[in-house]
Design goal:
Layout: H1 2-9, H2 14-26, H3 28-42, H4 48-63, H5 68-72, H6 79-83, H7 85-97, H8 99-108, H9 115-120, H10 127-138, H11 141-167, H12 173-184, E1 193-194, E2 197-198, H13 200-214, H14 225-228, H15 233-236, H16 239-258, H17 264-299, H18 314-322
Antiparallel strand pairs: 1-2
Helix pairs in contact: 2-3, 4-10, 7-8, 7-11, 8-13, 11-12, 11-13, 16-17
């Protein structure tokens, strides 16, 4: 990436800054937006105090393992509602066994991407960050998020080639319009599609974009500036997910689909949300049982379960079984 930056913008970004000054003379408003983005990009690792506090917050809330289990069901409320169950099954299979898909996944860079970097939006190399990195590797947080991203990208491969592109030739206008709307959001346009399909470069870029959008990667070009300001990093480090998840659901799963009369993603989302919540509560119960059993064996005292342990009553379980 650094080689490409030097080739395009010069060793000290002089070409970029020269073009930016020219743009500011022609259009001051656009120039200011780009300058703010450039400043944010160059300011990734500054404000050491804010970054240290953010890393400590991440270590407490993520490094200790509390977020791994909810992340195991992230696909149920993101990629599966958007692209369907069949694409999930075949995409998972292709991720493991299909050589073409594995090559494309490698070309997206996802197998070697710094997961913490793309999730948090900054890179940190302090001792505390290294501890957090070791913990999030040990508790499978990084592994689960990497698998989610890879499976989402593999799902997108089939969603585009076997779904959207075929639908773009449909004789039904509503289906054709839906397909082209979805493709255009992935920067794929009629001129990009030939009798052989879409080009490898376009497909791989779209696979990465779907993984980035649905797995909530940091993106300073589509988020409020506050989320990327280093001085506010201590406050926003985990707020980004709370901000991006409902927006992703509303735009990608609800609005983009319902405006074309497609309710299936919304139905899949509600079912996935319910099943994911049930699975999370079930796992937490089992972990609680295991932990309290050890304490009871050591102390001989019986512990009362917390409120969340009895959160699901018989009626809830009946609804879950029917779903």
């Amino acid at each position: 990436r650094r080689i490409a930056e030097i080739e395009r913008f010069g060793q000290t970004n002089e070409k970029l800054l020269r073009r930016l000054r020219f743009l500011e003379r022609v259009n001051p408003q656009e120039g200011k937006i780009l300058r703010d983005l450039l400043k944010t990009y160059q300011d990734y690792t500054k404000h050491s105090l804010s970054t240290t506090i953010a890393t400590a917050v991440s270590l407490i809330k993520i490094g200790l393992g509390t977020a791994t289990i909810p992340n195991m069901v992230q696909l149920l409320v993101s990629a599966i509602p958007k692209m369907g169950v069949s694409n999930f099954v075949i995409g998972s299979f292709n991720t493991l066994l299909n050589d073409i898909t594995k090559r494309r996944l490698t070309q997206t860079g996802l197998p070697n991407t710094n997961i913490m970097r793309v999730l948090w939006g900054y890179d940190e190399t302090s001792v505390l960050a290294k501890v957090n990195d070791k913990l999030t590797r040990f508790n499978w947080f990084q592994g689960v998020n990497r698998v989610n991203a890879l499976v989402t990208a593999a799902m997108a491969e089939r969603y585009i080639t076997q779904g959207l592109i075929l639908a773009s030739y449909s004789s039904w206008k509503w289906r054709k319009d839906w397909a082209w709307d979805m493709l255009s959001k992935l920067n794929i346009y009629p001129k990009d599609i030939t009798v052989k399909g879409v080009s490898e470069e376009k497909l791989i870029d779209a696979m990465y974009q779907m993984a980035s959008d649905l797995q909530l990667f940091s993106d300073i070009t589509s988020e409020p500036t506050l989320l990327s300001k280093p001085e506010w990093r201590w406050f926003t480090v985990l707020k980004r997910f709370g901000y991006k998840q409902p927006l992703m659901v509303f735009h990608k799963i609800i609005y983009d689909e319902l405006k074309h009369g497609n309710p299936l993603p919304l139905f899949r989302f509600f079912i996935g949300m319910f099943l994911g919540g049930a699975f999370t509560v079930w796992v937490y119960r089992k972990l609680y049982d295991l932990g309290t059993w050890g304490i009871e064996q050591a102390t001989g005292r019986t512990r009362e379960p917390p409120d969340w342990y009895t959160k699901w009553d018989d009626e809830d379980i009946s609804i879950y079984n029917k779903t």
